Amino acid sequence: MSEQSFIAGGHRHRGNIAERMVHGLQQVMEHALDAEAQSARQGLLQQLDPRIKLLSLLAVLSAALLARQPGSLLLLLGLAVLLGQCSQISLRQLYRQAWLSVLLFSGVLAVPALFLVPGETLFSLPLLGWPVSRQGLYSAALLLGRAEVAASFALLLMLSTPWTHVLKAMRSLGVPVLLVALLGMTHRYVFVLLQTASQMFEARRSRMLAPASGRMARQLIASSSGVLLGKAFQLSSDVHLAMVSRGYRGDIYLLHSFHTRKRDWCALLLAVALPFLIVWTHA
To answer: What is any Pfam family matched here (predicted)?
Structure first.
């Protein structure tokens, strides 16, 4: 199983903490299967060479860093939505898997800028009296916009490309073997441990005659976490010895070969033009 993303959607599950954890683990693995199926569709991004998509992602990130106007970042977000629609990636997926989480995490970092950056006061917070400056609002908007653009295009790459192809493309572009091997093994065995944890909780729950109380559920999670940690150490040692004994040196070998076509070069040219266009518009 190849996995593209850890972010799962779905309905909020009611129950004790152990049941919610089992439900969450199942959601993550179901989401991984959905992401794998999505990367096999015949969309615009799915048909591009993974190496071109990686280079284009770097170009778009450079454009986001060079942008000094929120309007430029909005245009880049619009481009991400357009590419998603052409690649059978819905607006709902972008919202739930990238925009919402980035807004929550980056928003916490951006809020202090509203009050700490000096400048022209727009208004003051009721009760607290803290002044919100125009320059602070501008800085917070740029921070959130850049984070949203980066997350959107990274999500498009992950949903349109099998994870093994991303790793092989990274090696093709000269990314060090150690980093690629670290990413590949970490990503793979996070899901192996998720599956193991899900099976452990399901096995324990199938032997219970009545719903676990809150205290028992917490004890179950604590004991299962300890067992899972021990299994992780044992598994990492066994797998490393097995891979080294079979000649593994960190390179990714696949039966699938990359072929760069005319449309790939056109896509790369358009992506590389974005940073220059941003600089030209701000000049």
So the answer is: CbiQ
170 in a domain, yes or no? Answer: no
191: closest CA among 43, 55, 25?
25
Are residues 35 and 158 in contact, defined by beta-carbon separation less than 8 angstroms? Answer: yes
- Total domains in the chain come to 2
Phi, psi of 221 (to 5 degrees): -65, -40
Task: Give the tens place of pLDDT for each residue, 103-146.
Answer: 888 888 888 888 888 878 877 777 777 888 888 888 889 999 99
Specify whether the CB–CB gap between 264 and 49 falls below 8 A.
yes
State the Cα–Cα distance between residues 14 and 19, nearest whole angstrom.
8
Among candidate residues 137, 38, 151, 164, the one with its CA nearest the CA of residue 105:
151
CA distance 207 to 187: 31
Pairing of the two strands 121-124 and 131-133:
antiparallel
In terms of residue numbers, what domain contains 197?
A: 177-245
**pLDDT tens, 216-235?**
777 777 777 788 788 777 87
First to last CA, the chain: 48
pTM: 0.76
b/e burial code for range 14-26 (CB count within 10 A of at least 16 → b): eebebbebbbebb
Q: Largest Cα–Cα distance of the chain, in whole Å? A: 71
